[in-house]
Design goal:
Elements lengths: L1 H24 L10 H25 L3 H27 L3 H27 L1
Length: about 120
């Protein structure tokens, strides 16, 4: 019976520590359930707009090889802009943040491209 008290006590400590870390260390708050629809729509629109960035050259340029080059250039430019904005608004070094975001995005894109080529045969 004592073990049950210990387990419940540890569970409460864990909940309390999660609350402390999320609230005071990370600055997180419980989301407002009334804003769920607005948050979902905001995320959906951001995904659609973000997905259009690399796809627009393919819609506008009829030659696939030229569209690929344009898509890479437009995507890297967008990653640099978003990375700079992220660094600027979070108080980080904007230029470093831009370069880091573009590099990570380029690596992820290259990995996806390589996997598609490998599956394609």
């Amino acid at each position: 019976m004592d073990m049950v008290y210990v387990i419940f006590g540890l569970m409460n400590v864990q909940r309390f520590l999660i609350f402390l870390l999320s609230r005071f260390e990370l600055g997180l708050e419980k989301p407002d359930p009334k804003r769920a629809l607005q948050s979902a729509l905001t995320i959906a629109i951001a995904y659609v707009l973000g997905g259009l960035v690399p796809l627009l050259p393919y819609m506008l340029i009829p030659v696939a090889q030229k569209a690929l080059v344009a898509s890479v250039m437009v995507t890297i430019l967008a990653l640099l802009i978003f990375g700079f904005a992220k660094g600027y608004f979070t108080g980080d070094r904007p230029v470093w943040s831009a370069l880091q975001t573009a590099l990570i995005g380029a690596i992820a894109s290259a990995a996806a491209f390589g996997m598609a080529k490998a599956v394609q045969g």
